[in-house]
Amino acid sequence: MRGISVFANVVTRFLPVWIIVFAIVAYFFPAPFEPLTNWTGFMLAFILFLMGLTIPPSSFRYVLRQPKLVFFGVVFKWTVTVAISVGLGFYFLSDSPDLLTGFILSGSVPSATAASLYTFIANGTVLLSVTMSVVDTFISPIVTPLLLEVTVGHLIPIEFLPLIIKMLMIVALPIVIGLVVQLKLRKFVEVVQPSIRFFSSITLILIVLSVVSGSQELLEENIGMLPLLIIITTLQILIPMFIAYAIAKLLKFHEQDARAILYEAGLCNTALAAILAIDNISFLAAVPAVINTVLNLSLGALIAMILASRGSDRKQVSSAK
Question: Potential cystine with 316: which of 14, 143, 180, 254 (Cβ 3.0-4.6 Å)?
Fold first, then answer.
């Protein structure tokens, strides 16, 4: 048991390192991991199910009493985050319409399912993160294609209802199931709760292996553009995160809420963006989304670890009962 505990601690504590290491492994040796591409959606849903096991039911009242938090996070994401993506894209990628469109798409999709995981690891308000993700889910099928039409002249043909249903199945339903299990099987949850971060971390690594192995040929064909794409994608992720967090603190939001908003602003569901790019634009347009997936998972994990080490005032949630 001691060995298992040490192994789990190594995995969770150094998650950003493992994400980068396994991304490199999947790039150079994609074949063994290609079967994982069929399970990406399930793995995303599994992570959110685990999050549902950890959400205190009393947290609902806390978030519902403060709708301004959800409004701020969602509006910031669909204005400032998108504007930063558009600005960086046109400045650096205007000579490549496909890469430009894919880059903007990567910042114009719903928040990443990993945002809830990292909010959890960072001791943020998980339910606030989930609530913002659900709102994103409902508005993105309309907002995303309109943003692309306005910014790059491309209207992505999306079947709105199937997309909404798919997002709800991956995001909302697993959370609800997790909450039900938490309420009905309390002893089971008490047993598995110490291992939730470990299993979530392992699942994230598997998602990285899936995304990178499935896109290896695309990445290899555009190897010369990778350094530039890595730099501007890092800016695409970090600038909105830091601005959102700073404004949240200026507005005197609780620290836990500011951390949730930070991830809403910076982490987008780029696995979804890659699928939309391949289906509706081109394979080349999916390259920025693949790069963003690896970077937002690794940077998100690193920032979560830093924030977790600083602690947070958990009394703020309980006080809202």
Answer: 254
